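HUMAN: Forgive my ignorance: could you write out one protein's sequence and backbone structure tokens?

ASSISTANT:
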Amino acid sequence: MSDTWSDADVESLEEPRQFKEEQKEPEEPEAREEEDDEPQQHAYGELDIPDDVNVLEGMPDGTRRGVAIVASRFNGEITNQLLEAALEALDGAGVRREAVTVMPVPGAFELPLAAMALAKTRRYACVVALGCVVRGETPHFDFIASEAASGLQLAALETGVPVSFGVLTVETVEQAEARIDRAGEAVLTALEMADVFAQLRASAA
């Protein structure tokens, strides 16, 4: 075999390389993919309701209201921070400390049963569930988080007492620590729903 290369041989090798360079994807789609990968956050918003309709809207006012908090002892360091944030939110809403009842339970799986029992007493205007479930190496996380959410919703639906979801479902403890303020949001949500339900009962009387 000859080691001599003709001009045609060189061109035949260069053409595929040039074609490949021409076919390279521009950088813009890659940048767009990175933007699409950014996590989307839920945003709180207001409704634009016309003035010519009746509006029944609650306020997070805890005056003269009894509030129950059911809290998971599992991942207790995080739950303690959630409880502290919840109590601060209750203070800010005007709920007296003697009107607050806290029921500790072993874990997030027990939260719905405790919330149901508290709601059925009719002693509380609302129930706030607090806890933290951190994803591990097994499907345990998915079952617990799902059952806690559906069970707490069921407690509210069956009793008619607002039950708010202040349970953190996260990948890491660091994510939980960055979301402690969700406890305060859960408190205000529960109080708002309790207030609007009280208005509804008063208007139906």
Remarks:
- The helical segments are 7-22, 27-37, 76-92, 111-120, 140-159, 173-177, 182-204.
- Strands lie at 67-72, 100-105, 126-134, 163-170.
- The mean pLDDT is 84.
- The longest strand covers residues 126-134.
